[in-house]
Amino acid sequence: MSRSTFMWLVDALQDRLQQQQTVMRAPVSVEERVAVGVWWMANIQSYRTIGQQFGLARSTVAAIVMEVARAIAEELHRRVVYLWNTDRVMRAFAAKGFPQCIGAMDGCHIRVRVPVHLAQFYVNCKNYTSVLLQGTVDNVGRFVDIVVGQSGQSQDAHVLVRSSISARMETGLYVPGNPTRTIEGVPVPPLILADAAYPLRRWLIPPYKGHLNAQQAHFNKVHGRARNVVDRAFGRLKARWRCLLLQMPVELRNVKPVVAACCILPNVCEDRGHAVPEVFTEEERRALADAEAAPLDPDPQMPDAAGEAVREALNAWLWRRARRH
């Protein structure tokens, strides 16, 4: 994060953090508190180690981290995490071969520490305790929607139905004007691409599963090429904010604002062209691989006729284009 971006963040949080000065022997400036919070999120270091770097007590660092995370989550979410320039996003996905697409969605596990009596409710399929982060990104990997907090035992489809983006896409209110295009005789609304763990909907398109014919295999290839932007976004997220890589040393009730803040800050950084650090230790690489593991099979879903019609129309359109070229 550059000095100019850091100062923008300080200015954005100034009023909020001045009102919530941590009780301590000597006041800590807003600039230093933001530095402490951002440093903790960007590094795998204990409160004690960071306290030694900044000359602060461990308990003070812990309190500041949560103040800053909550301030970012509550003050900047609406300002930073949103779908902007829909036409440009659609054109960019169309250039990758997929029409009408405004985003890609996926989920990943965030390791958390939970009380012993709750552990059984948070143990995921990889046998560690976690909560799920559902992220939706645009064509360049900016987060346009995030949902965090469901138990790691939850399936992606369960998180989806409890998210506001699902209701807004269902009603056509998420994308301004809900621009619809007729493809192969079928009205196709703005679309979000997802992996096979998600249900098929008129606006949510997972790939085909099972034994595929040549046409379906081609569809999945084009779909995967467009959808992998969300996988790369999760990788960049954890490369920048490494507190998400290993088990988060915060109380369960504090996980949501910290994860939200970590999803907001990449948009701030990428809007300003900052490079992503991509050097991982072997332990961090294993943690990344575990985190991306989603349940293989969604809950049985009733066939969605509108979704089937849209996917089949897209399938035919993509195949016809491929045969022409």
Decide which structural class fits the backbone.
alpha/beta
Strand content: 5-15%
The tally of helices reads 11
Give the low-pLDDT segments. Answer: 293-300
Largest sheet at a glance? 5 strands, mixed
Strands side by side in the biggest sheet: 3-2-1-6-7
Number of DSSP E strands? 7
User: Roughly how many Å apart are the termini?
Assistant: 44 Å
Order of helices and strands: HHHHHEEEHHEEEEHHHH
Helix content: 40-55%
Domain module count:
2
Radius of gyration: 21 Å
Average pLDDT score: 89
Q: What global shape is seen?
A: elongated
Keywords: Hydrolase, Metal-binding, Nuclease, Nucleus
Pfam families: DDE_Tnp_4
Protein name: Nuclease HARBI1
Family: Belongs to the HARBI1 family.
